[in-house]
Design brief:
By secondary structure, the protein is α/β, with parallel strands linked by helices. Helices cover 37% and strands 20% of the residues. The protein has 2 domains: 130 residues, Periplasmic binding protein-like II (D-Maltodextrin-Binding Protein, domain 2, 3-Layer(aba) Sandwich), CATH 3.40.190; 100 residues, D-Maltodextrin-Binding Protein, domain 2 (3-Layer(aba) Sandwich), CATH 3.40.190.
Amino acid sequence: MKIKLLLILLLSASLFAGKITVAVSANVSYAIDDLKKEFHTLYPNTKVNIILGGTGKLVAQIKHKAPYDILMSANMMYPKSLYNDGFAVTRPIVYAQGSLVYLSVKNIDFSKSIETILDENIKKIAIANPKTAPYGKASIEALKSLHIYKKLKDKFVYGESISQTVTYATKATDIGLIAKSALYSPKMSHFKRGKNWVDIDPKLYTPIDQGVVLLKHGEKSSEASAFYAFLLTKRAKTIFEKFGYIVP
C-alpha cells in the first residue's frame, strides 16, 4: 500500500515538474512573490517565470506570439479581447479587485474627508491617465461621484502607469490617487494610514475588476492549469487581501 502511495505521489510531482511563464500587470508586482511562494508549497517542482509590465504592452506581446501561458491583467478589457480573438482558451475571470487611496508625503489633515483634497494648499494632484490606466479611470469616476472633479481637473498631473503616478505622488505633487497595492512595496512601508494615506470609498467608483485568462500557449500545460486554478483559491485570495486588494 505504501509503495502504491509513493508511486502516486511521484507521478503527481512529475506532472507538475515543468516551467510556466505568467504575464503579470505591473500593479500586481508587490503580491506576485508571495503568490509564487504559496504555489510552490503545493507544486515545488514547477518553476514560475514572471513577466511584469503594463497590461497593454503584455497583450501586444501575446498577440505577437510571446510564449506566455497566463495573463493576469489590471482590468477585464484586455483579457476579453484576447479571448474574443482566440489568444485565450478560458473566459476572463475576476481574480481580485483593485482599490484606491489618497497618498501624500506632506502634512495633510485627512480627517477633513472631501475638504482635504479641496484645500487651497493642494496645487498639484497625481492621477493615472484615465485613457490608458484603469486606476485613472476609477479616480476620475470617484471625483465625479463626489462632485469635485471640475474644481480639481486643472491641477492634475497624469502618470502613464500606476507606478509613475506613485512617483509623482511622492516626489512632484501635493497628493495623489493611487492603487492601494502600491503601498505594500518595501519602499513605501514607511507611509502610514491616517498620516500619509487613507482609503477612497470603493462605493464611489466602479469595481476595478482584474481578470485572468489561460492563454493558447498554456492550453496543454498541466502546470499552467494548476497555477490558473490556484489564483482562484482561498489561499491566493488571502494573499491578495494582504496586499490591499478586494476579493470577490
